[in-house]
Amino acid sequence: MGYIEDRKRELEKYLPPLTRKPDFDLFWEQSLEESRRLPLGLEVKRLEDYPAEKVHVYDISYQGMENTRIYGWYLAPRTADGGRLPCVIQYHGFSGSRGMPSDHLFWTALGMAVLAVDCRGQGGITADHACYQEAYFDGPACRGILDPHEYYYRHVYLDSVRAVDAACAMEETDRDRIVLHGISQGGALVMAAAALDSRPAAALADVPGNSDLAVRVEGEYGSFGAAAAYLRRFPQHTDTAFGTLSYFDTMNLASRITSPVLCSVSLKDKTCPAECFFATYNRIESDKQIEIYPFCGHENAYSIQMEKKLVFLRHCNIIGSC
Length: 322
Known about the structure:
This protein is an alpha/beta fold. It is 34% helix and 19% strand. The chain has 11 helices and 9 strands. The protein has helices at 3-11, 24-37, 105-109, 152-169, 185-196, 213-218, 225-233, 238-246, 250-253, 274-281, 302-315, and strands at residues 43-46, 55-63, 69-77, 85-91, 113-117, 173-183, 202-206, 261-266, 288-293. A 9-stranded mixed beta sheet has the order 1-2-3-5-4-6-7-8-9, with helices on both faces. α4 crosses α5. The chain is globular, with a radius of gyration of 19 Å. The mean pLDDT is 96.
């Protein structure tokens, strides 16, 4: 047994107790029903003069939760027969954005459409119009942390599911070949959306966040260091805050995932520690694979992992042939 396999065997034993509350499933059933009742309100504007002549580029927006419009780019390679295309939905990392259309041309070179969406209130043009009962500091991970119905990531998870609605509404999209893709926070949103929506045909998540959240807060890892800072100031809210976070911990959602999954972690990652993600990965019951990079940090072995994603997508009949 080699070094990586030995480490993988150790990590596959990591199964911290689930923190699901008795109303966990009801909470998400009601949240999804609320989302479904909301008109999508999709608005699409084609960029007629975009210089990539073989690609249609659209500036899109749709209605997210809590009176917030979510902005994104939708790109689709021009096809001679006008047939429907597999579509990858791109979720960005913490403090990032939908980027620029050129950031996503890689996917169109594979013959895929791509929808890249903002997270509300982070680094893009999408605002966050949700109302929070208290003032919070140090970033989105603390917003609404005393009430799961109000919590920031409830809105973001549901916005992410509505991105699947938006992709399906575009005439170029093959609804049977939707792929979720993301890194870091984006990887967490891949896990959440795959758990809350059965439509995706594959899920690709690298160095994912939002897993084993009690440990993330205790260790002040990544964006959840803000929650630790909040609880230093308001220690009386510790149990309430941890109760809220339990609804958004992907380890509690993992058993709902039905699509094939390809993940990656890095063993020197101090932002989203590999062990934290294995609390989720070890509970995924669908077909799954994980790649471990022992000497990478949160930057991950991006190009090497991308090559493995291509093989995975071909194996899943998303691109090319089996």
